[in-house]
Amino acid sequence: MLRIKTASIIWCRPCLGNERKGLGVRDEGLGDEERRQMSLLHQTATQLLAQLESGNVSAVEVTQAYLDQIGRREREVKAFLRVDAEGALRQAADVDRRRGAKQPVGRLGGLPVAVKDLLCSKGELTTCASRMLETFRPPYDATVVARLRGADAVLIGRTNLDEFAMGGSTENSAFQQTHNPWDLERTPGGSSGGAAACVAADMAPLSIGTDTGGSIRQPAGLCGVTGMKPTYGRVSRFGLVAFASSLDQIGPLARTAEDAALLLEVIAGHDPRDSTSIPSPVPPYTQTVGQPLEGLRLGLVREHFGPGLDSEVESAVREAIRVYESLGAKVEEVSLPHAKYGIATYYVIAPCEASSNLARYDGVHYGYRTDEASMEAEIDSERQQLIAAGKHAAAEAVDNPLVRLYRRSRAEGFGAEVKRRIMLGTYALSAGYYDAYYLKALKVRRLIRQDFDEAFRRVDLIAGPVTASPAFKLGEKSNDPLAMYLVDLYTVSANLAGIGGIVFPCGFSSTGLPIGLQLQGPLLAEDRLLRAAHMFQQATDWHERRPGNRGQGSGARGQGTKTV
Amino acid sequence: MGLSREDVEKVALLGRLRLSPQEIDTMTAQLGAVVEYVQQLSELNTDDVEPMAHAVELTNIFRPDDLQPSLDRKAALANAPHQDGEYYLVPAVLGE
Fold it and tell me: Do A348 and B82 touch (CB under 8 A)?
């Protein structure tokens, strides 16, 4: 079991104005080949891309370095449901061949990208970490997957998640448990737990996640990587397996804001096949990300700093705010008075939409189907027992074979959390409860949105925590669904309001766990979020920290770090 | 306001789930706790608030009514657990 010793944690102060070098790496005792690989693994995607374009390194070499790192780390972290080594090397070789022949190469030409196993990939398994879709091979690509292919990304593997993205710990995957690379006994967060963990463990430089109530931002925070939930509709949802259609959004995970800008630029944009996608042009994020924001007005939400917020998280967040102040930002307190209703609103709306979306899994069109012979036998035996007991009305009411087929297929194909949400949503939408729950929640949703609109009249961005505490232990909350739902306190409001948010590391706990800072912005303020995150990352080096590789110490050295 | 076992059984049928007696017990307690938690929304007066069904409210999304290629039958049936090349197959619904 990998443990990070408190004594070996490297602390740093914000190192304002320092030149940034490549991400540090310990290379004592490594051979030349391994040292070269390590140096590839510790570069940002943007740096790698420059090297690929200049011919200093080949796509095959980069891909092989990541595959080798997967070989070293995946056994413990279990971030991937499937790694496609052969396919990745083939794509990489194709990019190298075209680049060598001076033929056109896409925007991500040769960079490995991991994709959450919730986006359809033509002819390839797309399981949503569910038994229901264990053998499902979609007949088409999600728009985001098609865009990645078009940009010549090397699709290296498919990452683990909570089943159908329902959860905040990746413990609800039907197939495996992903571990936090910083402490293997802890959760990577979720639902994009595999997407965040693979970046944190250097197994992919870029990764695609989805965020319905915090599923990119919370794992990014708990794994110490940069993750962004764009504005609702900024990225096409076509081919994304639906959980809650009015909340779901695809976004990038990476090591830096600069890298997130690169990936977002490729995946964002209007798509006629998603009528909720926003028909406005995609700004050149990579060109603006390096421009500092002059006179940034940063809002601190009064309600974010209430009871329940871990003191180490609070001090890291407050320290991050001071970094922004030192960079010229003006900080102002704002109020989101309805924020405290966020969880209640979310846990009505999301399950309602889920219960409707997941009705498609019926054991007929695609996906898991129960064994029909034993099902027929079960119905017969139930009927006969009831008749023998003289309960003729009850015998008549036993499910007909089609209804029983649906019910058994779904009972056997879905895990406990998915069933819980289908039940919750079905209940809230059922006759007599619709107005009290669903309609009520839609109204409170507007109040939550109005709070943000009001706040963004006074400030450019809102800064605060992403989770109330660092990564919790695996199993700690798995028997208490409500406790698990409350983890989403700081993230669900952005989904309800449709606004964007970005999370990146701003410190570490005394036990060596990453702490994330969340910035939230008005609709379509992705460029502002990325620039603000980049400003912070220019001034600090929290994002350069690495969880220890086995036998390699426990952290990277960055500029201006101080070893305690 | 809690949920009864009967409520849970009824909802399980509506949601086309089949729950074991033990699952019904667990679900009754767990859903009850969540439903009780969300009751807090009733504290708010929302009489004059328009419901917000979508995060970014786009309306009237039109496209030309042109024919586009769609999935062919083979691809559409390819993932079906039981099919005969033309139809999805299900157990008899209308009795013997």
Answer: no
